[in-house]
Fold this sequence. Notes:
Number of strands: 13
Shape: globular
Radius of gyration: 24 Å
Order of helices and strands: HEHHEHEHEHEEHHEEHEHEHEHEEHHHH
Strand content: 5-15%
Strand order of the largest sheet: 3-2-1-4-5-6-7
Oligomer: single chain
Amino acid sequence: MGLVSDGKKAVALVRKAVRNRSAVIDVRRTLAARPPHPPFQYRVAVYFADGAVNMYQMRQWYKPLADLAKTWPVVVLSRAATGAEALLSDGALPVAFVPTVRDLERFIAKQDIRVVLYVNQNTRNFQMFRYGRRWHVFINHGESDKMYMTTNQYKAYDYAMIAGDAARERLSRVLWDYDIERRTIEIGRPQADHYSGTLPYTPDERTVVLYAPTWEGDRPSAHYGSIATHGEALVTALLSTGRHRVIYRPHPRSGVVNHDYGAANKRIISALAAANASDPTAQHVFDDGPELGWQLAAADVAIVDISAMVYDRLAADKPLMITRPADPAAAIDTHGYLSACEWLAAADAPDIVAHTERVLGDPEAVARLEEWVAHYFGDTAPGAATARFQGAVQRLMDDWDTWYARSVADTEDDEPEDEAELDDEG
């Protein structure tokens, strides 16, 4: 068995190497056909060291960053070939492919980047931290109560842009000796101001249920995924009624670690296709597209795992249920919204129809949602979060000017007044 396992790993590594090499060739060919980046053009950089599998972390920021670029030009510093390939294909923002530290240094030397934004905690972020005289800012790729949201890695950044009071309280509970008042900036959820997408079905009398599970996780404490424990049962029940429309949006990494989880994901996708073939008016949706927004707005009820999707849906102020992890080792922070949410246990998944009807008909649950929305995101009026995000960047730019002027003054103070003074000291 050991030899078979080692053989499969070797084959996987070879395939990955071939895929990366192909991506490098594609990226270099694409960039060669484009004009070079203008020197000293960019003031803001988004550092992204991941490959295509984690592109969801970047895509949700495209529109807020494109809006920001109208004032402060933005470039994405892409370190991985498959990530750069996807970024270039999307065409949402300018991309600099800087796979080596030398490439990174060359690009930085020809630009006037003052603020560097980070959407995740990739260990290669530290290769960018070495550059001083610019602000390094963690903006994350979502809001949630997962342990990822309180990692001690926050301390590595000059600042962190957070959603609201809930994030501030969460960090206060966990991080020691972290100056939250000075080093965090509340911006809400600017992505919510840019929700987009066209409905891929014709609305009718059906109750629309969004099922958006996360991936299986790579360790017991992060086993939040529900596809293999809840997913097949609840989707089967919803497909059988003829009164529901399912929008299935699984995490892009589903099945990356656990083969059984990936197999369950494929069975759900096949079940949706079979239901549509049997009844074309059902218009069930398997959603793997890059846009997130229409799903949250269109669904009457959402069923999600413990992930950023909880809070994406929470910001929509509409009914939702959260799957309770089947693994007792999964870490659950019940200080926030998870202390008052509508849980769905694996044993209750076959009865999902009754549970959705209960949640839809409960006005007290809707009232609770409104309170938690304000706690997590502050002012959710259209455009409010975008204004806070852009205001935060403006503040950082102003602070950069202050610190730069101070550093220039300090340098001048250290220089001799004239050559005669230098000769006398000599």
